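Hey, quick one: can you model this chain's 3D structure?
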Amino acid sequence: MHRDVAIIGAGYVGIPLAQVFADAGRSVLLVDVSAERVDQLNRGESYIEDVSSVKLKQLVEERGLRATTDYDELREADAIVIALPTPLSKQREPDLSIVRAATEEIATRLRNGHLVVLESTTYPGTTRDELLPILERGSGLTAGVDFHLAFSPERIDPGRIDHTTKTVPKVVGGINEASTEAAAALYASAIDTIHRVSTPEAAELTKLLENIFRSVNIALVNELAQLCDRMGIDIWEVVEAADTKPFGFMRFDPGPGLGGHCIPIDPFYLTWKAREYDFSTRFIELAGEVNQNMPYYCRSRVSQALNHGAGTSLSGSQILVLGVAYKADISDLRESPAVKLIELLQNAGADVAYHDPHVPSFIEHGTELVSQPLDPGAYDAVVIATAHTGIDYAQLVTDARLVVDLRNAVGRRGITDEKVWKL
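Sure thing. Here's the predicted structure for all 423 residues.
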């Protein structure tokens, strides 16, 4: 069956993109290696929060949205969008194996007139230097002549409702002008605003700049938080005050570290690529060091609070970590600093449990835990690692013996109490 667009990768990026295209009247096929995921999608059961099962079922039943594991179906699509993970290796080097493997599959099904767009975050040069040769070699076709090739970075922020896939401007850069225009036309059929750039390299670096900007500024305020602790100044009061300036300042909050797929990982794509040009990206690497150190600093903060606030040591203490998702009101655990903090607290001898209404259980890096009922008084300390809005923080402070608030969840609500220790 003919499809307007096939999206490879049915995850946090692929499913919202499929929804936007389907809502715009395009026929959409999702391709994923997981037969279990494919079956779920075809039943209209969503496993990501940004697209509800009610909405997905409607798209399946009324718009003909479908999922498959069969790459042969790509032949019947006009456009193929790649929305697959690009993780880092243990050595913090880009791992493109998943994208390369998918591109090999695409290449043998490629035909004249096809449009291929990479959305996976990566380093500048990936589309032209990695995908293009694989596609040409496997198909016998010429990129930019027989088929179009472009890069368009995903800009998904899980859980966000004020800016959606449809409303966030889409950056598009093709290997030639015809490829750029083909990709722009595809996205313009479903997304409000298209911004063209001259090359895929410019589009690839655009995504990295966006996330590096956040990483560097979060590192700055995380470093200030540590200095404020020594100086006896409330970092949250300083941030609030600075945020009153209507120009020249953008607010960033400190926290226990960075989470999500993008900000903790993406900057390292550029630091890796920069070495090829004998260039050291010092700002980026320093920001990474500061942010990666925050869970360690927060462990020390918990230890300090127990020593001075309860007269006990971290070793042997009962600790409840409140929230393990990487940000509020979602279930996404990718790169969550709360998971790292739990590991560090356990390694220091603490007996650690967690409560998260969005994450019933998790297995990460050998740590396997199940969410416990919220009973703050049963623990020596409650550590707020993720500030989910559904928690009654006033009641929490009343019931808890000691609270270490790494997100200012308590202070933001105007609650003051001597048993609360801030970041």
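One thing worth noting: Residues 200-231 form the longest helix (32 residues).
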